[in-house]
Design brief:
This protein has about 350 residues and is of the alpha/beta class. Helices cover about 35% and strands about 15% of the residues. Strands 1-2-4-3-5-6-7-8 form an eight-stranded mixed sheet, with helices on both faces. The radius of gyration is 19 Å and the shape is globular. It starts with 6 loop residues before the first helix and ends with a helix.
């Protein structure tokens, strides 16, 4: 089967290395899905189609880093490809967006601070965004954090602080959301809560939801708005997309709650870990932006989260891009990625207090 090996495949690998969910036995399956050759969607932008075709032909998938090569067969080869891709995406982002990056400890937690070199816009001088990077809760610090923060800081002309939160396997839930709450509490000394936004992609999308739950648990005022991209307030392998796209597009089982080391010992019905399970928590969420692609294994988590928020009367906006995989917005060459950056910047501009 010909697959499109974009960044989604490599991010999926982060969450599936050395772990895997056993597919149901044939006698347990309700529906049998046939294997198919999946062509590039006829509805995607021409530029996106060319990028996907380049990857599908197993040519070097990143023009800025031709040494990345194809997907690789072993875990080590795929890990090397992933790191090569990340560095290439960072180079592409830096070339497009003139952003200054500095290290800062906030409340004792390591962070990266991203500020446009031309300065933040006048309307954003009293605003700040917190980025929570993806990486399956086991990786992504100092790499995916840059990929997610640079284009938003540059497009929105706003300060973005990416939190280097604790991850597995050395740490387990709720270490990450505890770290985010510490940083958030410190920022409340400088910013009004409605002037703070939080967003993240993949594991960062789920961590954004967990952080809202943690903020509520600690009785702190809520941020002005949040963004959950590539995954919502459920675990990313839950639902149809986690099984179908994880198995048949990414090329192998996606890690489940039971096999992810960060969630060791956590019950699958823990509402602090998976806030979508709790109508009470969801009803208190701030205005939320959700983004995914039709080939994203986290799509079910995203659309389910959106539906639950709307059902609880919460303001929520959903954008699903045709024919694109998990974490497609990492690649700034895609027109849909650039449009997503504008959507994110506009959303926070509309929702955060002036």
């Amino acid at each position: 089967m010909k697959r499109t090996w974009l960044i989604g495949a490599s991010v999926a690998f982060l969450a599936s290395t050395n772990v895997g969910a056993e597919p149901p036995k044939a006698e347990e399956a309700l529906f049998r899905v046939k294997s198919v050759d999946l062509p590039i969607s006829s509805l995607v932008d021409e530029v996106s189609a060319r990028v996907q075709q380049q990857a599908a032909d197993e040519k070097p998938s990143l023009s800025a880093k031709p040494g990345c090569g194809s997907s690789g067969a072993t875990n080590e080869q795929r890990a090397a490809l992933r790191q090569c891709q990340y560095q290439a995406y960072i180079a592409l982002q830096k070339a497009k967006y003139d952003v200054e990056i500095t290290d800062q400890r906030i409340g004792g937690i390591a962070t990266e601070v991203f500020v446009p070199k031309g300065g933040v816009s006048p309307t954003n001088r009293t605003r700040v965004l917190i980025n929570l990077h993806g990486g399956g809760f086991v990786a992504g610090a100092r790499t995916i954090s840059k990929i997610e923060a640079i284009p938003i800081a540059g497009t929105g002309r706003i300060k973005v602080i990416s939190v280097d939160y604790r991850q597995g396997p050395e740490n387990v839930f709720p270490a990450a959301s505890e770290d985010v709450a510490i940083v958030y509490r410190e920022l409340l000394k400088t910013y009004k809560p409605k002037q703070i936004g939080i967003y993240g992609c993949s594991a960062g999308g789920l961590l954004t939801a967990q952080s809202v739950a943690r903020i509520l648990k600690e009785d702190l005022p809520l941020p002005g708005a949040i963004g959950m991209f590539c995954t919502g307030a459920n675990y990313w392998s839950d639902g149809d997309s986690g099984y179908l796209l994880g198995q048949h597009l990414v090329g192998g089982p996606i890690a489940t709650v039971a096999t992810n080391p960060y969630f060791k010992g956590i019950r699958a019905d823990d509402e602090q870990a998976f806030p979508a399970l709790s109508p009470r928590l969801m009803s208190q969420f701030p205005p939320s932006l959700l983004v995914s692609g039709t080939r994203d294994f986290g799509l079910s988590s995203v659309v389910n989260t959106h539906a639950r928020l709307i059902g609880e009367g919460v303001t929520a906006e959903l954008h699903v891009w045709e024919g694109l995989e998990h974490a497609f917005l990492f690649d700034p060459r895609l027109p849909e990625s650039q449009e997503t950056y504008r959507i994110v910047a506009d959303f926070f501009d509309r929702r955060l207090a002036p």
